[in-house]
Amino acid sequence: MSRLEGKVALITGAGSGIGQGIAELFGAEGACVGVLEIQPQWAKDIEARLKSAGVKAFANQGDVSIAKDAQEAVQRCVREWGRLDILVNNAGTSVQGTPTLIEMSESEWDRIMAVNVKGPFLCTQAAAPAIRAAGGGSIINISSISARSCYPQRGAYSMSKAALENFTLQSAVELGQWRIRVNSISPGWFRTRMNAAVYERPGELARRNATIPLGRIGAVEDVARLAVFLASEESDYITGESIEIDGGLLAAALKSSAELARLRPNLGIS
Fold it and tell me: pTM value?
């Protein structure tokens, strides 16, 4: 398998969870992988993990909401490997304790919007000229099914992901002339470090699985495989799309909204 052979990818927030899974599969598919990760130890760990698997890789410690950090990561890709073909805007955050919009502090709101919306903007702005110089490529934004639904105490996160999906559309229109495709992936329920505490509640996993037509919450590998497709030439005529990967959860919600309404206060989706 080498669908990304000769390609260079930059992935944000790849120190854990979905981002880590994407980085590892991109490397296995032949890509050189650059990482921009805010947690210093996670940055060191993912770089070592990728290199131990034989992947050409680096990890910069930095914040996607700081333009200089985004620019430095892009420049390092070009400096080390001569090009940039793929950007995955995966870094995201939420608020511990999931306060309501009325209870949320201004600083909590600002941080969610800085990472989930401003971050992809700054990284796309930094990466697009380099991807254009490579003859085109792919930008993938990691969104959430929260962008199309409302859940108690998840308002700011949901709104940030809705903004990200509109950013995907705008970017696809503006960057298409340079043969840069822009799409977003919208995961449903997945277990990651970000939401690990949710799945520690007794019976939570079984309850969620029961609401999903395919019978299970998602695995990181599910998203990573979709990301490889969107990054590869197999998806050469796909742009401006947001692809749900939720095992049919949203489709089922249309038919069982009463049950979902009963569960929603306890769910806290990805």
Answer: 0.91
Position 153 scores a pLDDT of: 66
CA distance 144 to 108: 19
- Which of the following is catalytic: 151, 157, 199, 237? 157
- Give residue for tokens 């000229």: 129
Reported confidence tier of residue 268, pLDDT bands at 50, 70, 90: very low
Three-state SS letters, the chain: CCCCCCCEEEEECCCCHHHHHHHHHHHHCCCEEEEEECCHHHHHHHHHHHHHCCCCEEEEECCCCCHHHHHHHHHHHHHHHCCCCEEEECCCCCCCCCCCCCCCCHHHHHHHHHHHHHHHHHHHHHHHHHHHHCCCEEEEEECCHHHHCCCCCCHHHHHHHHHHHHHHHHHHHHHHHHCEEEEEEEECCECCHHHHHHHHCCCHHHHHHHHCCCCCCECHHHHHHHHHHHHCHHHCCCCCCEEEECCCHHHHHHHCHHHHHHHHHHCCCC
95-113 pLDDT, tens digit each: 766 678 888 999 999 999 9
In the annotation, is 157 catalytic? yes
Domains of the chain: 8-266 (3.40.50.720)
